Amino acid sequence: MTHDKDVSFPIIDNGLRTTWLFRGCLAKFDSPTERLSFLDAAMEQSGGLLAVSELVIALGYEHGLYSESRDHDQPHEPPLVEKGEIERLAGNLVHRIEEAAASGTLAVHPLFMEVVGRWRQFGHHEAAAEWLRQFAGTDENLVRVVRELKGEMRSQSFSDYVPVRTTTVSCDYLAKFIPAVELRRRCADILAAAPGWLSQDDCHLLQIVVANVSEDGTVTDPYSRRSKRSD
After folding, report:
1. How deeply is 106 buried, as exposed, middle or buried, from its count of CB atoms within 10 A (0-12, 13-18, 19+)?
2. CB 3.0 to 4.6 Å from 163: which of 114, 139, 154, 228, for a disulfide?
3. Model confidence over 116-175: pLDDT tens digits?
4. pLDDT under 50 in the chain at which residues?
5. Stretch (H or E) spanning 164
6. How far apart are CA 173 and CA 188, in angstroms?
């Protein structure tokens, strides 16, 4: 007798591939001074804010920084950059993110939620949350946020020939910025109003939010199907 069992697969995105590439390039420098020169030059570029942030965070993992997991507490090899330099670079990046938030360039960044996520990882949870709450004050911007948090879950039972793909929205993460009850209500109101700018894809994403957040603020994790109250 055989039993079906769902298996989920982690998704390796282009951001992670880029970080691996940059880290590999950095490792080719024999001198710590050369590595710092490379990083400082990258910091001076007007673009690439997200890519550099992800690289600095990846380097920080080697010192047990920027992660809630203990997986990175002990590096498996000598760190490429000293901890003090990582913290200096992170401070510079936070300043750049704050400038982007104040000037409006963060709001038009194609991956603004990824930048907000790095802002939080650098320890500035409240500043990131306050900016996002203000940004998502309009219905159009709230839908933009939901679009950014769209994901895909792939699962496969032993009887499936190919993985089943399911569209997800990171409701639990979004509830860190917007209270879950308010989030559900606003998404439901947008669906009911059906403004002309709302696409069918947007409707589907908002329906996912409404389905995964109950009226009392309980958020269901689509990966485990477990529910927890968002306070």
Report:
1. buried
2. 154
3. 999 999 999 999 999 999 999 999 999 999 999 998 877 767 776 777 788 999 999 999
4. 1-10, 69-73, 76
5. strand 164-169
6. 18
